[in-house]
Structure formats: structure tokens, C-alpha cells
Amino acid sequence: MKPESIPLKLNIMKAEIEVLQPGLFSSIQDLGRFGFQKFGVPHSGVMDRYAMRICNLILGNPEETSVLEITMQGPQLKFNAPTAICISGANLSPEINGNAIENNTIILIQEDDILKFGKRRSGFRSYLGIIGGFDTEVLMDSFSWYEELTTNFRLKKGTKLSFTSQQFSDSQTHSSLKIDTNYLNSDKVEAYPGPEFDQLTTKQQHYIFSSGFKTDESSNRMAVQMKEEVENKLRPITTSPVMPGTVQLTPSGKIIVLMRDCQTTGGYPRILQLSEKGIQILSQKLPGEQIRFTKKEYPGY
User: Fold this and answer.
1) What backbone torsions phi and psi does residue 88 show, to the nearest 5 degrees?
2) Could you give the count of Cα atoms lying within 13 Å of 177 in the half-sphere of its Cβ?
3) Within 10 A of 300 (CB to CB), how many other CB atoms are there?
4) Of 36, 141, 278, 284, which is least surrounded by CB within 10 A?
């Protein structure tokens, strides 16, 4: 992609976005909280870091700038002042005032413009970035919303999101940005062997890396559970650290992949650990879609 222009920032003023309809599940997220896991505080943060970074790079924001993460069914939002936005990740057929707009491009917004989303065309989670980021609550060095920790944890009708309004004029640039959207349709989820992987039998190991698994309808930002079961005779482990991307095997044989809002410790065997790309791809899967774990080796093996 070759942006034809970059915005020059002028006439800064405080402004708001009004939530006319909240959509399915939308929340403000950044890269998450770090250094608080010893207190039991989850990492949180965006599920798809690649989409977030692309969005912010296009806008000229620092890559860690907060965005609105939108799940499958988008909200309807009204802007009360000019700004510029970019949408990345899943294609949820966004429109401004009824006119279709494209993902991965700068969109200039005027006062009273209404953004809404329509039919899902690819992916599961979309990311709305705004020039300068959202001026929302910061807690433990992060903008990320999390239930029972932050004041908000999902958009509600009537919610007001603050931002800094900026008028724009265009300036030519020769910069380019290569964007890969193929991952939105990929079923290959990269995973490294976890701490308890070697306790699995050869048959179990082969099954995990040769079979397809469907994501369960109960999946959310905390964890993605697979419908298929794996024969399991492993004993529970002593409560040990876990993190986003940790793949646990329950006594009943269920595979659970921990995601951004997961707990910080667990007692189920940790059979795999997803790569960052693996988390990115899994985060874009609808409930019921099939994935395949692809084995990666740690550097030096």
C-alpha cells in the first residue's frame, strides 16, 4: 500500500465520539499491562497486534497507541469534531454516512459524521485507530479495558470516547507500507512445544500436529477452547505461570488456548505455546472455524 499523503496537524481541540449502538463486543486496548502479573493482573491488550500496529503506522501514531478493538459486529459511532481514522484487521464493511470506506487507509472525518459497520467479509476482529489515540482512562500504565479493573470493559450505548480533534491538510510523501492480509484466512497456528509437551505420548503429539480443531462458541478474550478432545492421562501440574498463547490440556482432554485476558497461573499441563503470529491468526477465527497447529522449534534446537 502507498499512502498518497500524510496529515499535518492543526487546530487541536478536545472532542468526543458518541456510541449510538455498541455492536457485539468493542473495547479500548493497547499493547497491554506489563509488570503486574505477580499481583494477578492479566496482560490484556489487543488480540491482534499486527493489525493494531498497521493501523497506527498508517496514521503516523506510535505503534503502541490505543485503538478500539471491534469483534465481528461493529458499533455505530458519531464524531462531534474533525479527525482522521484508520481501520485494520477484519473487514466488517465499514461506512461513513452510508458510503463504503476501505480498510488500511486514512479516512478524514468531519463533524457529525457517523461510522457504522455491516457484513463481515473476512476475519473476526477489526481495529479502529484515530490520529493521536483515544484520551481514555489509563490504569497501571495501560489504556486497555478489563472487567472489574477498569471503569469500562466494553462499549455501551451512550458511552463517550474522548479524543483530540485535529483539522488536516495533505502533504505529499513517497513512503510505502506493505500490508499482509492473507493471515485473516489462514488456518495455520504456529506453536512451540510447551513445558509439559514431552510428557505426551508420541501418538498424542502426532495427533495434535496432524489434526484439525474447531474453535468453540464459548471462546472469548480470555481463552479459545477447541471442540475436539485429546486422550489425556497426564496429571495436573503444580500451579505454574501461564501467559497469552499458552495451550493447556484439561483432564477431560479439552484443549484451551489462553488469550490476552487470561489468568496468570494455571494447573493444567502446558503442552504448547503459540508464537505471536499464532495468537494473531487465532484471534481472527470465528467460533466454529477450523485451525491446525503447526510446530515450530525454539532457536538453537
Assistant:
1) -130, 175
2) 19
3) 4
4) 141
Q: Which residue, 137, 172, 207, sits at the end of a domain? A: 172
- Indicate whether this model's pTM tops 0.85: yes
Let me know if residue 130 belongs to a domain.
yes
The secondary element (H helix, E strand) that includes residue 228 is strand 223-229
Q: Does residue 202 come out as left (phi exceeding 0), alpha (psi in the -120 to 50 range) or beta?
A: alpha
Tell me the pLDDT tens digit for each residue of 179-191.
999 999 999 999 9
Only one residue has cell 488456518, namely 187
Low-confidence ranges of the chain (pLDDT < 70): 1-12, 167-176, 300-301
Q: Domain check: are 112 and 214 in the same one?
A: no
Give pLDDT, residue 301: 54
Alpha helices in 120-254 (DSSP H): 202-210
Helices 49-59 and 276-283: angle between axes, nearest 10 degrees = 90
Pick from 124, 144, 172: which residue ends a domain? 172
- Distance separating alpha carbons of residues 175 and 165, to the nearest angstrom: 25
CA–CA distance from 177 to each of 3, 89, 119, 125 (Å)? 8, 15, 27, 21
Domain co-membership, 119 together with 155: yes
User: How many independent structural domains does the chain possess?
Assistant: 2
Domain range holding 282? 186-295
